[in-house]
Amino acid sequence: MGHTLALQPGRRRKPLSVVLRRAGLQVLYYVLISFVGLLFFFPWVWLISTSLKPPSQIIEIPPRLIPNPVMWINYYYGVTYINFFRYLANTLIICALVVIGRVFSCTVVAYSLARIEWVGRGILFAIVLATMMLPGQVTMIPIFIIFSRLRWVNTFLPLTVPAFFGDAFFIFLVRQFFMTIPKELCDAARLDGCSHYGIYWRVVMPLARPALATVIAFSFIWTFTDFQGPLIYLKNKDLWTLALGMRGYLQRYGAGGGTAMGAMMAAATLYTLPMIVIFFVAQKTFIQGIVTTGFK
Predict the structure, then answer these.
(1) Has residue 146 been placed in a domain?
(2) 245-253 — which CB contacts under 8 Å span 24+ positions?
(3) Domain CATH for 280
(4) 193: domain range?
C-alpha cells in the first residue's frame, strides 16, 4: 500500500466558560423576546376577555382577566346592534378593489421604471418619490372638491378608483424588488421573442410573489382599518364600513355601561380576525420578501 494517510488535526473543544456564556446569552435573548411578545399580545387577550365578561365585571375594580360566567351573548349583541355583516361586506368590497387596483397599477409602473429604458425615466421616478413628502391633509380638500363635482361622494368610487392610478410607496417598493431580478432573465426572454408584456407577466411577476404579498398585506390592512376616508365620503349608513359602523354604535350606545361595552369589545374582536388571517396566510411569503432578494 503505497499511499499515506493524511492526519487531520482534531477540532479544539471550546472552553466550558465560553459555552456557558453563549448559552446564557441565548436564554436571555429568548426571555426578552418572549417578554416583548407578551406585551404586544396582552392587549388582544384583554380585548377577548372583556368581550366575554358580564356587564358588572367590565367596570369592576380591580379588574379580572378571566370572566365568570362567560357571556357569549355579547357576540350576538355585537353583530346585531352594529349591523356587523353588512358593514363587513362593504369593507371587504372596498379592500378587494383597492388590492386589485394597487397590484395592477403599481407593478406595471414599477416594471417600466425598472426594466424599460426610456427618456425621463429617472426624472419621473424622482417626482413619484417626491409625492411621498406631500402630507395627505394638503390634498384632502382639493381631492374632495374633485370627487364632489364628479358626483362620486356617498359612493365607493373615491375610496377605490385612486388605487388604479398607483401609489408612490408601493411603486418604489416593487421597483426596488424588480431591480434585484437578474437582467439576463429578461434578455433571454426577449431573445425568445417575448414582448415587454410577456416578460412582465411570465418572468417578472412569478418571481415577485414576496413583493406582491407585501403589497397585498399592507393594502388590505390599511384599507380595512381606514377611518378617515369613509368618514369623509360615505354618508349613507348602508354604505358604511366597519370602522364607521363601530364608531356610530359607540356614539349611540357609548353611555350604556357594561352591556354596550361588551358588545363593542365583541365586535372589535371580530374586527381584528380578518387581519390576523391575512397575516398568517401570507406570513411565509411576506417574510421571504424581507430576507431574500427574489431570486434563488
Answers:
(1) yes
(2) 245/82, 245/83, 245/84, 245/86, 245/87, 246/82, 246/271, 249/81, 249/82, 253/81
(3) 1.10.3720.10
(4) 75-291
Are 143 and 20 found together in one domain?
no
pTM of the model as a whole: 0.81
In this structure, what DSSP letter does residue 294 have? S
125 and 184 co-located in one domain: yes
How many domains does the chain fold into?
A: 2
Q: In degrees rounded to 5, what are phi and psi of residue 280?
A: -70, -30
Per-residue pLDDT of the chain (296 residues), as tens digits, is 444 444 455 556 667 777 778 888 888 889 998 898 888 888 888 888 888 888 878 777 888 888 888 888 888 888 888 888 899 999 999 999 999 999 999 999 999 998 888 888 889 999 998 988 888 888 899 999 999 999 999 999 999 999 999 899 999 989 988 988 888 888 888 888 888 888 889 888 888 888 888 888 889 989 999 999 999 999 888 899 998 988 888 777 665 555 578 888 888 888 888 888 877 777 776 666 555 434 44
| Shared-domain flag, residues 113 and 207 | yes
